[in-house]
Amino acid sequence: MMRTPLRPLARILDARARGENPDAIERENRRLRGEATRDKARQRAEGRLLVMSVLFLAAFLTVGLRMGSFAASRPEEPQTDISTEQIHAQRADIVDRKGRVLATNLLTHALYAQPPMMIDPKGTVDKLVAIFPDLDRERLIKDFTGGRKFVWIKKRISPEQMQAVHDIGDPGLLFGPREMRLYPNGHLAAHILGGSRYGTEGVNSAEILGVAGIEKEYDGWLRDPGNGGQPLKLSLDLTVQAALEDVLAGGMKLMNAKGATAVLMKVHTGEIVAMASLPDFDPNDRPAPLLKGDPSDSPLFNRAVQGMYELGSTFKIFAVAQAMQDGLVTPSTMIDTKGPLRWGKFRIHDFHDYGKQLSVTDVIVHSSNIGTARIVQQIGPEKQREFLGKLGLLEPSPVELIEAPTGRPILPSKWSELSAMTIGYGHGLSDSPLQLAAAYATIANDGKRVLPTLIAQGGPREPHKQEFGAPEGDQVVSPSVARKALAMMRAVVTRGTASFGDVAGYQVAGKTGTADKPNPQGGYYDDKVISTFAGVFPVTSPEYVLVLTLDEPTDTSGKEPRRTAGWTAVPVAAETIRRVAPLLGLRPEPTTPDTLDGIRLVKKD
């Protein structure tokens, strides 16, 4: 940019030559420069004003058009447009093997109060007590009229109760959104599901935590938003579970039993299709645990997993299977059953006098204690203990329940020869019905080890807390021995102690067990027993194992009270199979073979 000098030399010399004042030239140049600068500033300001006017006009038009569109539209609540997949933060559902809901979440509200905002505290208390009769009136008056600024009234309320509180109209009564855990089937599968409670709580939300059963065992998985709301699928079949619980409750009442439990398991996978323990509870209103007395008296006690019982003669098939596996006996080997069997000062008796000898098959069919003890003597204590360990009868069940580790088998302090003999016929070693079901499933699975599970195949399995027994799939006994053991159990049903368990068309095999209950003061009760039936069906192609146990049953239908499993547990188990087999899709077979693996199944003429 070229600037004109204020005192140009040529003009100064010319002015001096004419006798003019050179300072006038500088003043004139300064005036002209100032006018030029002022004109440029005015042009710049006018340009800025023009731009601002255009912007203001555009903004005015935009606001006007937007207001016009609002005026012409229908009033609606604003919607959030989320194109990406949402993260599900709520607790996942629990469903059965067919996708039917066992546990889910329900949106509800919590009720709380801010006493400083209340208009009529005492009048409000009276109205609240009319809606919620379980509230403590005096305590609420004290809380509302004292110095408290926040008071929980109800952690969850129904929509009807919420509307009734709304109608009170006191501004100090407020609501917070809340999710509650809902078990839509009530008591059904209560011990498996367990229950839940609120953890960390706030006005607008509350954390749901599992307190027992599957809810507790899979608490982390159910709360993990990374699963995207995927439900936890159990191996249970809701329809079969309902049928089993219905029959079990009826049988418990009919047999005057203190308690009852049953386990229905798939032979080849160990999946538990149904499992029940009575008495039970409603997970929606979980009762408080017992603080004293016998834990098994509590409805929270899971008899199938936590109940440790001497399971009586159901153990005899294990002794025979081991002896056949070791080559010590065959089904036709004759065993000395002359009684009583003396061992030191102890005597072992049979329920009946079976004569001097019985075949190994008939030892099982007639449930001879003496015959079983003789077989165990050939095996020896150390080998017996090792074999029972492979069947998983010496450690807690690895099933996916938080209560499972508490169900520890009760072992003899010294595994002597006498202990081995009594354990052989089911006394001196206490196990859970679930452990017995898994052991029977192992035999029915051609002798391959089966581990119980409550998770449907392909679901998220919790790692087993410990390795015990033989790993899943290991061969505990040979297939031929397993088939012979099943044939013996079929003979028990067709011509032995479980004759009431012969369900037409389903070829049930099984073993009864009646064990005197231990007296906490020492010894055993004379009139209290645990009666059990452990069965497999159909025996020609095993699919399911059923173990059913009654606590202190008494059949009063005859002239004298009867407590043995053949009169108590077996009829209830037979009715259970009759009810659930069609639900399981099993087709009845009209004919039954006379022999199975060379073992006679029917009585001779």
TrEMBL record:
Record-level GO BP terms: cell division
Record localization: Membrane
SUPFAM superfamilies in UniProt: beta-lactamase/transpeptidase-like (SSF56601), Penicillin binding protein dimerisation domain (SSF56519)
The Penicillin-binding protein dimerisation domain, residue ranges: 87-223
Transmembrane segments: 49-68
Pfam family for this entry, one: PBP_dimer
Domain Penicillin-binding protein transpeptidase: residue ranges: 261-559
This protein's UniProt keywords: Carboxypeptidase, Cell cycle, Cell division, Hydrolase, Membrane, Protease, Transmembrane, Transmembrane helix
Domain of life from the UniProt record: Bacteria
Name of this chain's protein: Cell division protein FtsI
Source species taxonomy: Bacteria, Pseudomonadati, Pseudomonadota, Alphaproteobacteria, Rhodobacterales
